[in-house]
Amino acid sequence: MATRRETSAVREHRPIEERRTQLLTAASEVMREQGVAAATTRAIAERAGLPHGSVHYCFGGKTALLRAVVRSEVDRSVERAWRRAAGSTDLEGLLRNVLEAQLGGVRDDPGHHAMLAELMALARRDPELADLPGWEHERYVSAATDLISELPATSDFTLARPAREIATMIMVLAAGLSDLWTATGNRAELDRALDDCVRGLAARLSRPA
């Protein structure tokens, strides 16, 4: 059986990218379960099974770690929406797929949604993280813009507004529908609102080619 010193040595010599991944996962778990305030460097390192100094060694400090968590989680959310919307042949289908992917994350993993909301609230108060809300918005809008821009080449309709404007509307709808679900937890009401928004917006923003 390995001694504590031998085990510690093995941990210390793990590749830095492996330790970064462990710390990101641990930070997300702690924040989902206990909130952002509970995510001290000690709590995160302990959850990851790494020495306390690993957070500073791998990220330079807690602020950089929180920034990395936000970027990782948002990228994952965007990729989920992209996969679901890929192959859409009309604007209504794309709108529905993107919004359902976003809402699916809120419904199926409320802890993740609450964690990101808390992190964004913190970012708005912390000058070192103040750029993150704008980055998150741009990440979603840019991805949606790319998806929308690909539609006219393979469809029998044209867009009535620029793709980026439509993408921005999608993000506004996603935020509103997410708030509706968080406040009520009423799936039937959410589905009705989603249907109305998708059909209305698609009819307004596309026209026959």
From TrEMBL:
GO molecular function: DNA-binding transcription factor activity; transcription cis-regulatory region binding
Domain HTH tetR-type: 17-77
Keyword tags: DNA-binding, Repressor, Transcription, Transcription regulation
PROSITE patterns per the UniProt record, alphabetical: HTH_TETR_2
Transmembrane regions: none
DNA-binding region per UniProt: 40-59
Protein name, entry field: TetR family transcriptional regulator
Native source organism of the sequence: Streptomyces alkaliphilus
Lineage, opening ranks: Bacteria, Bacillati, Actinomycetota, Actinomycetes, Kitasatosporales
